[in-house]
Amino acid sequence: MTPASATGLDPVDVEILAKELDNVAAEMGVVMMRASGSPAIAEAVDFSTFIADAEGDIISYAGYITMYLGAARQAVRHILATYPRQEIRPGDMFLCNDPFTTGNAHAVDVGVVRPIFFGEQLVAWCWAEAHVNDFGGAAPGGMDPTATEVYGEALRLPGVKIVDQGRPVEDVWRIIETNIRVPELVLNDIRCFIAACHRCDERLRALVEQYGADTFRRYVEAAKDLAEQAVRRRIADLPKGTFTAEEFAEHNGHADELYPIRCTLTVSEDALRFDLTESAPQTDGFINVSAATTLGAVVSPLLITLLPDLPINQGTLRPIEVVTRPGTICDARQPAPMGAGHIETGFRIGKVVTRLLADLQAGSENAFVREHVTAPWQDSWSASFFYAPDESGRLVPFPDMNGGGSGAGAQAIADGMDVSGVLAQPQNSIPDIEINELAYPVLYLWRKLNPNSGGPGRTRGGAGIDLAFTPWYTPGGQEHVMAACWQVPPCGVFGGYPGSTSGSALVSGAQADEAFARGEVPRAVEDLPAAPKPLQGKQFGLSVGAGDVVVLRVGGGGGYGDPLERDPDLVAADVRSGVVTADAARVSYGVVLDAAGGPDLAETSRERDRIRASRREWHREDGLAVRRSPAHERLAERGQWCQPRPGVELAEYADPDTGTLLRADVVVHPDAR
Questions:
Q1: Per residue in 151-183, pLDDT tens?
Q2: Integer Cα distance of 213 and 209 in angstroms
Q3: Residue 607 — pLDDT band, cuts 50, 70, 90?
Q4: Angle subtended at Cα 161 by Cα 160 and Cα 167, rounded to the nearest 5 degrees
Q5: DSSP 564-633
Q6: Which one of 210, 250, 409, 523 is CB 3.0 to 4.6 Å from 374, fit for a cystine?
Q7: pTM surpassing 0.90?
């Protein structure tokens, strides 16, 4: 049935306008990449753009970072609620970076919001936002693991005018310049946001002129209604009922605790309700998120796995209800610190939603829905900040965006992508090594795939990266690390194993500078003359001197299906590419390689039979063969890594007759929290 708003309209015309709007939102991102001098924007694509209607409802959202759609919408709505309508004029621009008012993920994500006028009529809004190198506060880079309240974090601006009717508000620019460590870089980034909004203003006014203001508005409303209708039809293909799952945010910066994120999903005939009210209370550490960020974290897996072929506008969101409770880590209130909440609690919210959707989509009668099942991704950003003087003596914060090089969850029909990044950041990238070395006082020793980090399965979880850098053209400085998936690995599904977790190490006395002087290039930790010291999940102010080495190993996504069902030729290819070791091929996949590196099919058959027989010997629980082990020990047997934590267990469930692995669940016992 056609929505009432679309009656009398040609759906093709509506779709053409919707695609034109999508192109404008995407072009804003291109402007930012070309105008910014920051690797975080130009290389890592760590930004978002969107267009809203006059009331602040989304009419187009570019797919750079889907997680920020809630913040984008909240920013516009806050400005509309704060400024009298007569004080919002053509040429105005507002700066937003406050999690508590404009909904930003954290204060180092800075957004510019612009109203768009056609004549004297307000017809739309646009937003251009990105992660900047610094925005003040105690910690270089703006993310402080030691913060106990938001007032110790970066400078916050709750939607204040930075441009008034085309004229810069110099007082605001001076406040920003005075409070940040690298003002020339950050102010240029803000200018590139303004340039992106200028481009949107030009393109959108041309569209309104082409269609006429009334027709433009009718088409926009029709596009929302058609999107809503399509989403409701897709939801109707899911099994109905109420389902609950739990994930855990880790280490709030100064307390090594686990913080439960409990999500109850109710699937009705044509709507979804995500209830996160039973999640942990907000903490005095920097892992909290706003309700706006929670909305984006919930919706992102839906857009990627359930609705990948549908547009992103306000109609897409109408059938989706996200319920939070104020005062929890999913809906924090002042003065809770927020510095790393989106990469901690936010990505864990996405992970628990991915788990719920996997079971539901696998039970659908719609083949398209089933084929888009994915195991949980690593979904962590292992942030690293190095703060040191460069060769000119200027102190420079270096946010290493390589920490986003985690692996994707395996899919029903394909392996997870290696070094995919995060599910909620579909167009993110990692900078070229040479760009980072040009911009910052560092030199990389290696960057390669982290072997065995992807969860074993019939389809394999994607691998993360293994990298190391040393200070370069600098006497050294401070290092801050923040591993977001450190002790609780991402689950596999339907018999797939979890992926590895992420962690960092510091090699003091590595003498990398001396090795280079001798013409030697260390290519692995084993090549260094000192042992690596594993770092805690969150550490601040580590001293890193000349020749020392910082090592980061980023984990992978969960596997899908019993690893013993994986094609032996694919396992052999993984070994050749370095993503799986020969030992792990045998232990995890039951694949024995011959002298030429190919699978020995006879030995592989015998090895797989042996593994299935050993599973049948596990003790019985509710009619299944079950083995329970400490997660870090069981993963270590497969060449994987997980930071040990008592009470974090891997529970494996097999068919007692066939030995087929049915589930490999990560279980967190109450005494581990």
A1: 999 999 999 999 999 999 999 999 999 999 999
A2: 7
A3: very high
A4: 165
A5: GGS-HHHHHHHHHHTSS-HHHHHHHH-PPB-TTSSB-HHHHHHHHHHHHHHHHTSEEETTEEEEEEEHHH
A6: 409
A7: yes
